[in-house]
Amino acid sequence: MRRYGKNTDEDDIRSRPNRKGNRPRTHIRPKHEDAAEGMVLTVDRGRLTCLVDGTPVLAMKARELGRKAAVVGDRVALVGDLSGRKDTLARIVRIGERTSVLRRTADDDDPYERVVVANADQLAIVTALADPEPRPRLIDRCLVAAFDGGLTPLLVLTKADLASAEELLDLYGALDVPHIVTSRDQLAKGEAAAMVREHLAGKATAFVGHSGVGKTTLVNALVPEERRRITGHVNAVTGRGRHTTTSALALPLEGADGWVIDTPGVRSFGLAHVDPSRVIHAFPDLEPGTEGCPRACSHDEPECALDAWVAEGHADPARLYSLRRLLATRERTEGD
């Protein structure tokens, strides 16, 4: 081994050539100005199926995006092989700005929020009137998530042949939430899908509901098998014979310019991420009354200015009750 002393000249030391693996890193990122625009249809184990000019393309997130994740509904920019052929893989290099986000946490003690769907216009909350019994607290939580994320809620009540919808609708009357009531007979005849479709045209609608309420059956009626072929890549990605709602999936709406986004069935809907100050935006008749509230007001405390606002006749007391019920659901479980 050659040794170098203190009198060694610089020229006596060999310099190692800059090989491929030793190139200096740069913070300059390519602009990808020629990237194609697409929409994320589904995500499975790090692989994303995107729709690019009518072709489903399998892609992965580029390293330069870091921790930023793309979700169903995201508008993205892609480069690479966009042919959609088997065994090809494109790269997502940009994620567009989101107009809305549907978030949830695993439970109310979990600080880690998960974005379920991006850029949806509506949240269709599917609930059975019987078998299984409706869970108003879960509906409340979904409403809070919709208001917080910038989505318009839509109540879809199923199995009206087993129980009346009147009592449940009375609970949400003050919120002015649009609703649809269907029976199992209407669903079998295709009438339920037609009723729901009127509210979906031209919009991206995310469907949420717990097991047994008929959500997936309704989605299947809205999006027949021939329209599902556009997401044929999903089968290859997941390895399953058909989609079983274990991850969100965007499907083109039959007979209208819109999207149906089927989400996994939920057992709970955590709201640890929700800031009460954002929920009030869904109550434009009450929001001006919060100007006199103390800082960080929960809108359900003795100093809350909303009581005086309602007492002066600026808003319906039922609206304030509904707001406080929704905000209180963050402190309760769905079964309370």
Structural class: alpha/beta
Report the total helices: 10
Identify the strand order in the major beta sheet.
10-9-8-11-13-12
CATH superfamily of the largest domain: P-loop containing nucleotide triphosphate hydrolases
Strand content: 15-25%
The total tally of domains equals: 3
**Main β sheet profile:** 6 strands, mixed
Q: Would you identify the CATH architecture of the largest domain?
A: 3-Layer(aba) Sandwich
- On the 0 to 100 scale, the average pLDDT is 83
Radius of gyration: 26 Å
* Intertermini distance: 77 Å
In total, how many beta strands?
13
Low-confidence residue ranges: 231-245
The level-1 CATH class of the largest domain: Alpha Beta
* CATH topological fold name of the largest domain: Rossmann fold
Rough outline: globular
The residue fraction in helices comes out at 10-25%
Helices and strands, in order, run as EEEEEEEEHEHEHHEHHHEEHHH
Short description:
The protein has 336 residues and is of the alpha/beta class. It contains 10 helices and 13 strands. The longest helix has 14 residues, at 136-149.
Task: Give structural attributes.
alpha/beta; OB fold (Dihydrolipoamide Acetyltransferase, E2P); Rossmann fold; Ribonucleotide Reductase Protein R1, domain 1; 3 domains; globular
Layout of helices and strands:
Blueprint: E1 36-44, E2 47-52, E3 55-61, E4 75-80, E5 90-95, E6 101-104, E7 114-118, E8 122-128, H1 136-149, E9 152-158, H2 166-172, E10 179-181, H3 184-189, H4 191-197, E11 204-208, H5 215-222, H6 225-228, H7 233-238, E12 249-252, E13 259-262, H8 276-279, H9 306-311, H10 317-328
Parallel strand pairs: 3-5, 8-9, 8-11, 9-10, 11-13
Antiparallel strand pairs: 1-2, 1-4, 2-3, 4-5, 6-7, 12-13
Helix pairs in contact: 4-5
